Amino acid sequence: xxxxxxxxxxxxxxxxxxxxxxxxxxxxxxxxxxxxxxxxxxxxxxxxxxxxxxxxxxxxxxxxxxxxxxxxxxxxxxxxxxxxxxxxxxxxxxxxxxxxxxxxxxxxxxxxxxxxxxxxxxxxxxxxxxxxxxxxxxxxxxxxxxxxxxxxxxxxxxxxxxxxxxxxxxxxxxxxxxxxxxxxxxxxxxxxxxxxxxxxxxxxxxxxxxxxxxxxxxxxxxxxxxxxxxxxxxxxxxxxxxxxxxxxxxxxxxxxxxxxxxxxxxxxxxxxxxxxxxxxxxxxxxxxxxxxxxxxxxxxxxxxxxxxxxxxxxxxxxxxxxxxxxxxxxxxxxxxxxxxxxxxxxxxxxxxxxxxxxxxxxxxxxxxxxxxxxxxxxxxxxxxxxxxxxxxxxxxxxxxxxxxxxxxxxxxxxxxxxxxxxxxxxxxxxxxxxxxxxxxxxxxxxxxxxxxxxxxxxxxxxxxxxxxxxxxxxxxxxxxxxxxxxxxxxxxxxxxxxxxxxxxxxxxxxxxxxxxxxxxxxxxxxxxxxxxxxxxxxxxxxxxxxxxxxxxxxx
Length: 555
Fold this sequence. Notes:
This protein has helices at residues 26-30, 34-56, 63-76, 88-100, 112-121, 127-157, 159-170, 173-179, 185-201, 208-223, 232-244, 249-274, 292-300, 305-318, 338-346, 349-364, 372-387, 401-410, 420-438, 471-481, 523-527, 531-538, and strands at 323-326, 329-332, 487-490, 518-522, 541-546, 550-554. A four-stranded mixed β-sheet has the order 3-4-6-5. The chain is globular and about 80 Å long. The protein is mainly α. The longest helix has 31 residues, at 127-157. It has 22 helices and six strands. Helix 3 (63-76) crosses helix 4 (88-100).
């Protein structure tokens, strides 16, 4: 009998620990429609929360740049603005921008910030309508990532744990807040989660040929969205080799090569979609020179020149000294413990408990342990990398945690201990109530232990609480409650106050004795107030707040 030798390009998985195949619970077996119904309800409430938030919020600090870049991709077909971030996330935004069909001035001058302001406020466009359409594609993508959370947890532990995982994801204030914005954080994190899930699925016989290339494509999508995904590359490539068995070296290396090649291909394709001629002029923007190990790393990257120059720009930003704020303390530079502390403040208490229990379950329970490297290791590596960053600006830099750890948390229901169902679902309900109570002010959320969203600005700043999102709400408050009064404004954001009908002066440019009437100050400015602004605040009386991000003083 002759034996044929396999020469498949994509390696076949070898026998390993059996995949977790829990039996559905009795209610699920009796009512097969129940799980799809609950999934639909959870995603529907999440969609309602995100759309409401998107409708009510004015542009945050970063959004005008991304929207203007997306419009530039559609009209000029070249990499010109925002080269420090790869194009894919902005191509997602461009889908909504194309539907909105704004007027774009090809002759606008200035940097990317000026381009964003001109598109939204100086070109005859309706910024409310344009921003809603720009945000909708990210909202849809965020909902699809909810299905990835559900599918990942179901593969590990069954439908009930998957529902718990999806509930934690769907009620996560951070995911709702940033999933409703035309920004890059949630898309990049979701693509990484998708890659990890597909790598887990590739362990099963017959699935490697499909799952490994798709996992590489998802990894490439993350890399083509944000460069902060780069630390996950060695982890996910190693997991690809692990998935087919390290004892078979050739198969393991082939699996790693398939994932890496697919990822690099997606990055190149993303740039080619924007500009098939790959035009890039580094002289049009400031690209710092990067030396040493970082410089060598950039030169070795198998990506387009624009991507590598974007990496150089990111390293240049990391070399700057930024100002941070944590628990009332203003500091220069970064603090390694900033993100863990901020996460403790801004994560629902029930979610924190389930995250910890889920991580322990994945490590301690034998039948769940094979999944630990796919869920916990990527999240840990990404968090460690984010903690070393120079910019202490918000938990959005760790928005991957509510995704990966929701999967882990759902696995608590697979642990055999008395009372697990009652305790787990009680904590999930606690998370839901905490999230619903903050509606629609998800961006400044903090949990009950730290006083809720009204107190977040006392401990954290920037995108944790005040990212310029409430300028429209401020206009409504001033026109309604403070009509006819002299208005002074210190605003941190990308919006143009006069467009919303706010006629205000900067109190920092007037003599102290002449500043009378109503003074509105963004809470990020309050947090870091020094000198003249501090004296103005100290001699005023806080009488109102808007969206938990702007404080109104009476003088």
